[in-house]
Amino acid sequence: MIDLAALRKDPAIFRKAFADRGAAIDVDALLAQDAKVRELKTRAEGLKAELNAASKAIGAAAKQGGAAVEEAKAKARALGDQQKAADSEREALEKALAEQLLYVPNPCLPEVPAGTDAAGNVVVATWGDEPQFAFKPKAHWDIAPALGIMDFERGAKLAGSGFVTLRGAGARLQRALVTWFIDQHVANGYTEWAVPYLVSPQIMQGTGQLPKFADQLYRCKDDDLLLVPTAEVPVTNLHAGEILDGASLPLKYCSHTPCFRREAGAAGVGTRGMTRVHQFDKVEMVWFTTPERSRADLETMRGHAEALLKGLGLRHRVLQLCTGDTGFSSACTFDLEVWSPGTQGWLEVSSCSTFTDFQARRAGIRARGADGKPQLVHTLNGSGLALPRCLIAILETYQQADGSVVVPPVLRPYLGGMERISK
């Protein structure tokens, strides 16, 4: 949620930020409603002071007796009614304003390149050469079923389109990736969390998924709970409503969860196989840090995600997203994409973002500094990394002419020493 005080101070900055995002936000209407709320609050406080004085006057009038007492009481009642009316109007307007603010995106940092869509994203780093083959490389949807490690038909039979099953070495390979990712993060100072996969609407609101993206979430209506679209949601909200010790920052957490998303994308090559699915596994990194160091911490987090791809020997690139492609809650995002030899395209496996104090304001996450005063923390999160696209990249990058797939060396200890997946 944006800072209303900052909006009042310099609305021009917000107008430009929203325009750069392509967001139709009526800043003047927000300011007018905010001004009305503050006006009613001042009025109610003034009426309360008058009411207090009128209440004292009743006692003085009582000593005189006669009609003066009734007049004093009538005046106090009138003032009380006026105060209640002002408070009631203020509360209604304040609630309406708060609901409007839930749909207002986070302004991007000034450094974020301006652009209307993905075409405006900027490649800021690349690593690795394009894999070379003495044969025409296949896509994962041909490689994996032939090896008997991936089954799309049975996934569809169980839950419909957009779901997949993994079998044998395929399931083990995914489990190995998750465990290796977690081990690398723990070695980098992250604390591992196991969290619920169902959360309340309030928790979804804290990180910005609700109310704007309600149509993309799976809901358990009888219990008013929602399946998590990412571990970012429960992990960030671990400290909702808390005041942290500023000396403990940054806090670095990681967690593995399945992720559930109703919108898997339109039909076509981009959704074939397990490129876009409704359920997938992901390891998430979440940081709680200070405003002074959050931008530098984003670079560190991004480095942790890149190190995983380098460890797997996967060709990849890093994009800085432009204003029009940056997510609703993010102020600055870097996407990591791996190369898919089978489709000759790039696949996103991680987004690393700083949300500044946007999520912390929604979720009420603060830290007490050296001066003893609590202030909103800055939150960051990044995929470290997302499956199944890592599986896709491994299968396609390490495929062999005989249809087998070589296992990346870092994963072999997690697969009982297995060096190659064969039919």
- How do the strands of the widest beta sheet line up side by side? 1-11-12-13-16-10-9-4
Order of helices and strands: HHHHEHEHEHEEHEEHEEEHEEEHEEEHEE
At CATH level 3, the topology of the largest domain is BirA Bifunctional Protein, domain 2
Query: What's the number of domains?
Result: 2
Within CATH, the superfamily of the largest domain carries the name Bira Bifunctional Protein, Domain 2
Distance between the termini: 52 Å
Q: What is the name of the CATH class of the largest domain?
A: Alpha Beta
Shape by Cα distribution? elongated
Uncertain runs are none
Sheet-strand content, in percent, reads 15-25%
What is the CATH-assigned architecture of the largest domain? 2-Layer Sandwich
Helix content: 40-55%
- Look at the structure and give the mean pLDDT: 94
Give the total of beta strands. Answer: 18
Major beta sheet, specifics?
8 strands, mixed
Q: Specify the structural class.
A: alpha+beta
Radius of gyration: 28 Å
